[in-house]
Give the backbone structure.
Amino acid sequence: MPFVLPYTSRLLWARTAALVCTCVAFSVAAHGGHLGNSGDLFIFCWSFSFAGTLLILLVEMFGLQTRMPVSWNNFPITFAGYASLLCLSASVAFPINYLKGNQWAGEVRDHRIVSTVFSCLATVAYLVEVSLARARPGEVAGYMATTPGLLKVCETFVACVIFVFVSNPVSYDRYPALKWCLAVYCICFVLSAAIVVLCVGECTGWLPFPFSRFLSVYSFLAVAMYLTATIIWPVFQFDSRYGGQSTRPSYCTIPVSCPWDKLVGVAVLTALNLLLYLADLAYSARLVFVTG
């Protein structure tokens, strides 16, 4: 067997910890959590993370990296990034849905607490994996292991959360300006996801133009588009002149299902994605003008 370096050993331990924690999280929740149909999303987050991590461990254990149809310099860290965000979301939303103000007690509540704790531990394990696998200054690595690549992971994930909030209930069909905001979310998500797919599939060489310049131009356009959405969404959703409400309605007693809270969430996530794209633009411009 080849000699395993300490860095690789730490990466292996992080992945093993993530594997165990996600397995415990979804197993305990499915066995005694009594989640119902509304808990399927949380089970998916943990089981998807578990299955992907198991696949990565098996591929590296048997040395099958070169036989995989993806770039192994990009795939593991990309998956770890998405898995960390999935587990983080589950760690926040699961106790809100199933622990806060819940009437269940005894073993059912204990199972839910255990799932929450191991979901948090899985999040930490995946963040450690990302920290260990990300590119260091001067190190040759895949694009997804760099800061701009990890920002693409965050941008696409935040966009997915926005889609969930604006679609249930539908909150973008009252004015054309709100439909423009939805168009911004969709266009930027599709292009960012395409970049992730191109990098993981090692297909960036197929582009008829330099990949680095495309990243810089796209980041600039994404910042400009998200800037408009950051301004337009709160104006048309919370200004009384457009039928909005600037204060939280009295009927909003449950944070999870309150439509007004979701509108606020979209506004916050839009601003967050604007900051992510700004950071992305700064790194992409540096990549072009420093190396170009």
Summary: Residues 259-291 form the longest helix (33 residues).
